[in-house]
Amino acid sequence: MELRRQQQHGFDYVDEGQGPVLLLLHGLFGALSNWQQVVEEFSPHYRVVIPVLPVYDMPLLQATVPGLVSYVENFVDKLQLPTPLALLGNSLGGHVALVYTLKNPSRVRSLVLTGSSGLFEDGMGGSFPKRGDYNFVRERVGYTFYDPGVATKELVDEVFAVTNSNAKCLRMISIARSAQHHNLAGDLHRIAVPVLLVWGLNDTITPPSVAHDFTRLLPQAELRFLDHCGHAPMMERPAGFNRALAPFLRRTAGAPSALAAASSAS
């Protein structure tokens, strides 16, 4: 299926299906298409919503993790999405999902994190893409995946275009630095909702040790590894990702929000 983009209230997004809301957040170099297989699998039974995060064109002073969290808060409010909802995030999107949950505990029913930043991230293999060097960009984008062939020419071209725009690069660097400095290790114990971690066993950007750290620090976390898989399991191993996600969503459909869970535990 082709993802149909909509524009409303100044937001660009996908909104497919009906039922409980799944709100999906892409990463720094991510796009709506990253979640293609998730939309196809779950939109018959869920309302799958994916906002385009303004990582390349938001005001420079707001180009931070907190700035993106504010954007998601406004998006949920303006579209009047019913809450509590299930929140899914890849890479930077996972980081934003975590902070959103900490700020809005009554609005989140469950969390799914895959390759999430928030504890550690070796962004782009330890370096930012070099401007004007297409081969370097292709290599760094390929570093995201276990199989570099997943990095299609279209994807590499998109990242290359970003690296050749000074304005976009400034925002990308600002957000990446904010993510690296915004460590959540001391806050994760406050997230009381069920959390599913789906991680690539061959992720070199947020390695498996990071997934274990998340599992240890989050009170209600379960971890699933996918072999022969890098930093974006929903793209590289979509069938395995969806197999892990489906039972978790069914099991947590009636789970209390973070606020209610925290209150009942106190």
Task: Describe the 3D structure.
Helix content is 39%, strand content 17%. It has 266 residues and is an alpha/beta fold. The chain has one domain (5-122, 183-265): Rossmann fold, CATH 3.40.50. An eight-stranded mixed β-sheet has the order 1-2-4-3-5-6-7-8, with helices on both faces. Helix 7 (208-217) links the parallel strand 7 (195-200) and strand 8 (221-226).
CATH topology: Rossmann fold
Helix content: 25-40%
CATH class: Alpha Beta
In one word, what is the shape? globular
Itemize the secondary structure elements and their pairings:
Layout: E1 5-8, E2 11-16, E3 21-25, H1 36-42, E4 47-51, H2 65-78, E5 85-90, H3 92-103, E6 108-114, H4 134-142, H5 153-163, H6 166-181, E7 195-200, H7 208-217, E8 221-226, H8 233-236, H9 238-251, H10 258-265
Parallel strand pairs: 3-4, 3-5, 5-6, 6-7, 7-8
Antiparallel strand pairs: 1-2, 2-4
